[in-house]
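Handout, page 2. Input:
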Amino acid sequence: MSTVTIFPPWRISEWETVDDRIRGGKSISTLHERGGDGIWFCGTLDITALGGAGFASQRFRFSDLLVSQNRNTRGYG
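Output:
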């Protein structure tokens, strides 16, 4: 059985913002590096623009290699 690294060495450039602005909201989030001591997640959640449905988040962009390997695993379509 081979192994696959899920999270490679940390690079903030491989994370992306996913806030309610994609749906017309006004929430904002950012990640800030802390010099080898992790990260800070910062943001402002606006629950008024979308009637209480605001969200602010960040997500890791997996490599195409990892995505293609997961699709070929049993149990995945």
